[in-house]
Amino acid sequence: MARMYYEKDCDLGKLDGKKIGIIGYGSQGHAHALNLKESGCDVCVGLRPGSKNWAKAEAAGLKVASVADTTKWADIVMLLVNDEAQAAAYKTDIGPNLEPGMALMFAHGFNIHFKQIVPPSFVDVLMIAPKGPGHTVRSTYVNGKGVPCLLAVEQDYTGKAHDIGLAYAAGIGGARGGVMETTFQDETETDLFGEQAVLCGGVVELMKLGFETLVEAGYAPENAYFECIHEMKLIIDLINKGGIAMMNYSISDTAEYGEYITGSRILPREETKRRMREVLADVQDGVFAGKWIAENQVGRTYFNAKRAQMAKHPMEIVGAELRRNMLWGEDDDPDTASN
Question: Is it the case that residue 339 has pLDDT exceeding 50?
Answer without folding.
Answer: no
